[in-house]
Amino acid sequence: QLQLVESGGGLVQPGGSLRLSCAASGFTLDYYAIGWFRQAPGKEREGVSCISVGGATTNYADSVKGRFAISRDNAKNTVYLQMNSLKPEDTAIYYCAAHGPTSQNRCAKGNEYRYWGQGTQVTVSS
Q: Is the pLDDT of residue 52 over 90?
């Protein structure tokens, strides 16, 4: 059974940091492009960041550029989202998603993601 599990969410003060993890089970992430998405209460889901199969291509939403960094460790079958300088508007449930298997070294489009995790809550508040 192919499964993605997010972890690392929690409550953090503005300006703080968190590192989210997206771990895969039942398949290897080597041939999957991964995306991070978030959904705040009353808002639509939005793409936050993505990383290609080989890791050479990454993209970020304008709202998180310079603050968030996506990376992957295929040996650990895990993708990370390092979030720094967090703001209250970053509060949301964060989801990771996988597109593949693919050999294309590009980020996937939103509707291409086939596998989704259950999400992890991130709350930024003083």
A: yes
